[in-house]
Amino acid sequence: VYGPDSGHGPILCPLHAVVGLPCPACGLTRAFCAIVRLDWKQAIAYNALCIPLIILFITATVVAFYELASGNTCRFYKRYLYSTPLAKACGTLVVGYHVIRVGFWLCDGYLVVGYWKTSWTYHLYYWLAGT
């Protein structure tokens, strides 16, 4: 199983690479790799949003198989999953979690060491400055 936390690979997140800030999805690849290894504690440490996403993926798979097997469409997702209140609640959850997470990283210094100093912009600045 691919383990991105086993080494230092390239930065694939455009926001992290260019600006030096984490996006709300930063850590999700490592979190899903930890879930594959059944390391739930480490998965939550990488990004706690992996739990609702894995539940969504499993539910969507079950619903898709049910619809294929029965030939009927489930009506609940038209009413609930495509609703504006649910979209607003999910957006608020993601933004709130991200703001709190970045706030903790700012306080303990990880935002500077783990994100800003590993960005392309940081390295380009120091390359151009000659230091």
List the defining traits of the structure above.
8 helices; elongated; mainly alpha; 66% helix; 131 residues
Which helices and strands occur, and which strands form pairs?
Blueprint: H1 14-18, H2 28-36, H3 40-46, H4 50-70, H5 76-79, H6 84-108, H7 110-115, H8 120-129
Helix pairs in contact: 2-3
Please, could you describe this protein's structure?
The chain is an all-alpha fold. The chain is built from 8 helices and no strands. α2 runs antiparallel to α3. It is elongated. The termini are far apart. The model has no long low-confidence stretch (mean pLDDT 85).
N- and C-termini, Cα separation: 39 Å
Q: Helix/strand-derived class?
A: mainly alpha
Helix tally? 8
Q: pLDDT below 50 for ≥5 consecutive residues: which ranges? A: none
> How large is the radius of gyration?
19 Å
Rounded average pLDDT: 85
| Total beta strand runs | 0
Molecular shape = elongated
Instruction: Kindly state the percentage of residues in helix.
Output: 55-70%
Strand content range:
under 5%
Order of helices and strands: HHHHHHHH
Largest sheet: none
Outline of this structure?
The protein has 131 residues and is mainly α. It contains eight helices and no strands.
